[in-house]
Amino acid sequence: MKISFRLLLVLSAFALAPVFTTAQNVEEGKKLFEANCTSCHQVHSEVVGPALKDVDKRRDEAWIIKWVKNSQAVIKSEDPYAVALANKFNNSVMTSFGSLKDAEIKSILAYIKTAPVPAGPTAGGGGGTDSTDVNNGPSGGGNMNNSTMLMILLGLAFVLGLTSILLGRVAASLKGTLYTAQPELAPEEGPGFWDGTFWPWVSRWNKTVATISFMLCFVFLYCYWGFGYANTEIGVQKGYAPAQPINYSHKIHAGQYKIQCQYCHSTVEKSKQASIPSPSTCMNCHVAVQAKDKYAGKISPEIMKIYNAVGYNPETKKYDGPQKPIKWVRIHNLPDFAYFNHSQHVKVGKIACQKCHGDIQNMSVVYQKNTLQMGWCIECHRESKVDMANNKYYEKIHAKYKALGKKEVSVAENGGLDCSKCHY
Ligand code: HEC
Ligand code: HEC
Ligand code: HEC
Ligand code: HEC
Ligand code: HEC
Ligand code: HEC
User: Fold this and answer.
1) pLDDT digits (tens, 9 = 90+) for 229-244
2) Ligand 5 centre and the CA of 318: distance in Å?
């Protein structure tokens, strides 16, 4: 029997097609899962919601699609599985994903089936007390930076220099007394340090005048550096990383679980302030997330601090205790006479948080990355172009510049260097 070569090709294409499309689905599913689900789910461990491994064996595809699109509707329809699940997770509400297409949800399922178990002993744990990257902070965690060290070293050098000069003087006068008493001990006279051989121009000076001039030069340099130091470093909190009342980590929340910055800093696009979230925002997840596996079955003491702040009793599940606000220590802080507006930069200027704050999503403890000094603001205003083309905010000005034949305008040219824009 002779099978034509062409037929063989077609047949093998059919056989291979599912392999290719699955690989593609898994890729797409991974992206969708990371963009939408990882803030609450991991494949292999329970987070805010259940571990999704084998979910396709627990429920059929149609159920899962209905659930993902609107889980509350499934619970309301009194589906016994859904009701039990919601009770198990303290009725924390899963976001509805009405905009995901059936095919996209199927891709997510394809990804879940193939997702590898993460390496390392704390699958999905992270480690709340991990403080290693404080040391990545520009100041090494403490508040002593290079300039401070330099000033201290220079000061020490000065004191040591002075002491050695004084001791030298004492030794010389002691030797003088000794040699007059016993001249045979005196060494043969060679040229001294201040005697013409080395520095002929110094030899014309009196030794004391030379020493004092040398010291005055030193003092002058010290003051000069000291002035520059005071001007640029004192009151500038670059690298400032204070301990916070709760061991809250951006590395876990914004990094590992990819929770959007705006979820917590909710006013950053609307107002001048970015705002720090209230503990009720934390409770959206932490009613259920208690990290018990890390503390031998007990609720994490750090998460207990959130409960104490809102007066929540995890045993009775009631909010009946006294409330105590969490006293976060403020890190970034401009003086009162300077005006800075977040929405102007984030929403209108479309600048990423990281440009000014550094890679917050990798910090276990937040530190100040930039100086926040006037020179820093001005430098960026000189370099940045105003994005006028897709910007309603600037429609009128844009038209004006266009009429003048200008295509690009920097923030500086647009008034970003006017004193009154930043100073009241
Ligand atoms: C805001 C948190 C949150 C997000 C985001 C979220 N889920 Fe959920 N999910 C939950 C919770 C909580 C449950 C447990 C049931 C309940 O309390 O509603 C759950 C349950 C499920 C279940 C049922 C699991 C089981 O064991 O039967 C599936 C399937 C599911 N989620 C899929 C997804 C997918 C897919 C995404 C992303 C497109 C997603 N979830 C995003 C919180 C979330
Ligand atoms: C789950 C909530 C949450 C998320 C998500 C979150 N943050 Fe925060 N953020 C906080 C809390 C709470 C504080 C105060 C405690 C601290 O400084 O660590 C804070 C502090 C900060 C500070 C320092 C504020 C100060 O005092 O000067 C900056 C800057 C910041 N966050 C930026 C970000 C950025 C950028 C992202 C996204 C990559 C982000 N945050 C995501 C909760 C969150
Ligand atoms: C969208 C969900 C979500 C929100 C909102 C959230 N967290 Fe978390 N948080 C988590 C997850 C998930 C973990 C990891 C739990 C684990 O390691 O088992 C976690 C871990 C923690 C831990 C470490 C616990 C430990 O001992 O290991 C602390 C502390 C914490 N969160 C504090 C906060 C604070 C404070 C807020 C509010 C500013 C907040 N969280 C908001 C989901 C959230
Ligand atoms: C152009 C630089 C810049 C960008 C971009 C920026 N910030 Fe800030 N941020 C600052 C400055 C400057 C301060 C200090 C403001 C003050 O003291 O008035 C600050 C302060 C903060 C604070 C402290 C509290 C507060 O409400 O002011 C938080 C939280 C914060 N930023 C979060 C964010 C987040 C989240 C983003 C991104 C969505 C972001 N920032 C983008 C420069 C920036
Ligand atoms: C990373 C770059 C960057 C840094 C750093 C920065 N800015 Fe800006 N700033 C911009 C951009 C871009 C705009 C224009 C936004 C727009 O399209 O309106 C802007 C606009 C402004 C405006 C409005 C100017 C106008 O013409 O209306 C003020 C006020 C301002 N910034 C203040 C500050 C202050 C104060 C600081 C320092 C604490 C600062 N900025 C730091 C990029 C920056
Ligand atoms: C883009 C915003 C911006 C503009 C434009 C700006 N400043 Fe400032 N200025 C600041 C900020 C932020 C500070 C506070 C940080 C610091 O101490 O450097 C400051 C601080 C100062 C100080 C206090 C000096 C010090 O070191 O404490 C003076 C004085 C000052 N500005 C004058 C001016 C004058 C005059 C102009 C106009 C030529 C001007 N500024 C324009 C942002 C700006």
Assistant:
1) 655 555 566 778 888 9
2) 46
